[in-house]
Design a protein that fits this description.
Chain A is mainly α. Helices cover about 75% and strands about 0% of the residues of chain A. Chain A is built from eleven helices and two strands. In chain A, helix 1 crosses helix 11, helix 6 crosses helix 8 and helix 8 runs antiparallel to helix 11. Chain A starts with a helix and ends with a helix. By secondary structure, chain B is mostly helical. Chain B has twelve helices and two strands. Classes of the chains: A mainly alpha, B mainly alpha. At the A-B interface, helix 1, helix 3, helix 4, helix 5 and helix 6 of A face helix 1, helix 2, helix 4, helix 5 and helix 6 of B.
Chain lengths: ~280, ~300
Amino acid sequence: MKKNNDIIQQIGFSILFFCIIITLFFLGLIIFFISIRGMSVISWEFLTQVPKSSMTQGGVAPAIVGTFYLTLGAILFALPLGLACAIYLCEYTPKGFVVNLIRVSINNLAGVPSVVFGLFGLAVFVNFFGFGVSILSGSLTLGIVILPLIISSTQEALMAVPQSIREASLSLGATKWETIKNIVLPTALPGILTGVILSIGRAAGETAPILFTAAAFYMRGYPKSIFSEVMALPYHIYALMTEGAHPDKQRAIAYGCSLILLWLVLLISGFAIFIRQRQRGVHG
Amino acid sequence: MHPRIKEKIYKWIFTVFAFSSLVFLLGIIIVLFKEGLPIFQKVSFSKFIFGKTWYPTYDPPEFGILPLILASVWVTVGAIFICVPLGVGSALYLHEIAGYKQRAILKPLIELLASIPSVVYGFFGMMILTPFLQNIFNLPTGLTALNASIILGIMATPTVCSLADDALNYVPKAFREASFAVGANRWQTLTKVVIPAAGSGISTAIILGMSRAIGETMTVLMVAGGASAIPKSFFQPVRPMTAAIAAEMGEAPMGGDHYHALFAIALVLFLITFVFNIIAEIISRRYRIKLGLSG
């Protein structure tokens, strides 16, 4: 009987191990194929030149630059809002009803499908405010997408600050704001930055929110102002696969773009995941 | 400035900013209603939801989104068959079996899988999975509901895994110790004590995984094939709601019927994910109370 149970346990454990192995196999497969096939396209020219001959030659520099602008804009918009929201929830501890209301809206905002954000951006930023299809509209839309992520990671960082430090500061006569500014925020800073880095990875890879708010398939040069349309890596991959007249040549370029985007996001997110794990301890 | 006034101003600023999520969520709801409802002056609500043909650019146009809803349901159900066993299985392994060192390596890798952009998943599906499926099943096209289900399933796996992992975390250690104390081995403890105790937490993880899959846009846009007929098998191209919105919004004239119809689809989609999220929220709150943790 005892032996039988041991065998069942062994089989059960093996099945669960198999589940995680399959999951990670897909991670490996995606990285492997895109890296191998994209490698041949990558060159200095590919990274630094503008597209030529209707997207069949030249590089994708404007798309890389565009992704940088959009991501930067999204962070500039979402970070102050997210920080303030997390500080309010953790430090000013409002009434239960208010906390619940804000928490439920953060959770639901995080669950909104990305294309719905795109429609919201189109209706509000592009049309209602008249920003047009532009870096500004795209950044604001992406900012809303990453807002829940910034709030929850900042909250986690603030909650990890020991209560005793706050009390020590308050007992020395510092006001609430002085305590937050001089004690809590500096202590929580590494955790907050980790959340920001994760959000950068997320914003850089999002496509659906910028489909109708910022992205252009082809531009001759670089965007001139925040009201310009912009090329972006994720949208460029999609457009190369679905538009244009030279599918074969475009496919090769799409592999190159996927390689850049994949490794960009893997490195950014990997760095943040690594740091966060050290902050939380393994079981966090 | 007097310090007390300064304090009040700061608190006031934080309070206002704290409601930003609520403002954006309400903004999204208002926009979807405002831009989506006008279509119901042209098509009745039941004809919109249960209409079997989606020909928005024909003359006269047909705005029946049943094929799109069913396509979303099909690919999501297909994804569940992949993300539930893989996600829950991985979480059980990570939380209950893996040692400290294994967990320290495996968990970040799962999180890394979650960070891959959806357009890269879509691209992978188009370039690698499509020819593969076309060959083994001998299909006229590899861009099918099956393809979308597989990719969505892989994408939702890390979500299910990390939420199920959290759920397992809430199971008090005393439960496991009590089980060991009466002579159960680790597997018996896992299947007879831990999984039942974490059951509703794990179901929350599955619901949120489904919510993620049904709202996913770029992958289904790229690999589902795009045909807007009512799906009959996994081996045919389909057009889920998200794909229809993303593919057609660029061509729909602003303020026209097609434009309003696409917003109405987004409204339906939003309501579905909203309900999923609320259900998950309610279950997880009850679950924590059941385990004696604060709500």
